[in-house]
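dude i think i finally got it to work??
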Amino acid sequence: METRTQVREFIVENFLFGDTKPLENDSMSLLDNGIMDSVGVMELVAFLEGDLSLSINDDELVPENLDSVDNLTKFVDTKRG
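look at this
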């Protein structure tokens, strides 16, 4: 499955409870738009480390990596090499 699809499905299922309407586009900020909060970031990291088998360093826990579907997709693809 494509990275973007995996990330998007996780966000929709876990933070939006299946409702795709609030996630208008893949570049929108998940934090600024109330889709995810600080606890959600930790859930997201657990998903990345568990389901996607990534190792996330503390210095990588920044909005540039985790605050939108676009950012997450780029981050995961970069980490996977």
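The chain has four helices and no strands.
im so relieved honestly
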